[in-house]
């Protein structure tokens, strides 16, 4: 019985200590609008990718109506939240707002 309890505690410690998968964050923009890229440096618990819309498949290019766009994907690979630019072609969200969304998804 004592061995079972020790074994169970070791499993719990191993699972809780193992690193969680980071949240995927994809920043979409066109090359002609690169001066309005959003600086995501300092964002934690996220794998950040910057991609050009023009280099994406047609289905993705057609789904993006404004740039830049920051898409935050859940662990299931589906978009959980996105931040889009306004008429100035700039994203007005703060890093704190973006980090808050990432933290909620990361901890789920």
Question: Explain this structure to me?
Answer:
The chain has 108 residues and is an alpha+beta fold. It has a single domain, classed as 3-Layer(aba) Sandwich (Glutaredoxin), CATH 3.40.30. Helices cover 32% and strands 23% of the residues. It contains three helices and four strands. A four-stranded mixed β-sheet has the order 2-1-3-4. A hairpin with a 5-residue loop joins strand 3 (69-73) and strand 4 (79-84). It is globular and about 35 Å long. The chain starts with a helix and ends with a helix. Mean pLDDT is 85; it is low at 1-18.
Strand-helix topology:
Layout lengths: L1 H16 L5 E7 L16 E7 L5 H6 L5 E5 L5 E6 L10 H13 L1
Parallel strand pairs: 1-2
Antiparallel strand pairs: 1-3, 3-4
Key terms for this structure?
108 residues; alpha+beta; Glutaredoxin; four-stranded mixed beta sheet; 3 helices; 4 strands; disordered N terminus
Briefly say what this structure is.
Helix content is 32%, strand content 23%.
CATH C-level class: Alpha Beta
The number of distinct structural domains comes to 1
How do the strands line up in the largest sheet? Answer: 2-1-3-4
The radius of gyration computed from the alpha-carbon positions, rounded to a whole number of angstroms, is 19 Å
């Amino acid at each position: 019985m004592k061995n079972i309890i020790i074994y169970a505690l070791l499993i719990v410690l191993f699972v809780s200590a193992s690193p969680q998968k980071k949240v995927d964050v994809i920043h979409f923009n066109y090359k002609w609008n690169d001066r309005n890229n959003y600086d995501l440096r300092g964002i934690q618990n996220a794998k950040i990718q910057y991609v050009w819309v023009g280099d994406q498949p047609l289905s993705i290019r057609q789904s993006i109506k404004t740039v830049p766009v920051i898409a935050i994907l859940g662990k299931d690979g589906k978009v959980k939240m996105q931040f889009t630019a306004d008429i100035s072609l700039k994203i007005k969200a703060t890093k704190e707002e973006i980090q808050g969304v990432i933290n909620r998804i990361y901890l789920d």
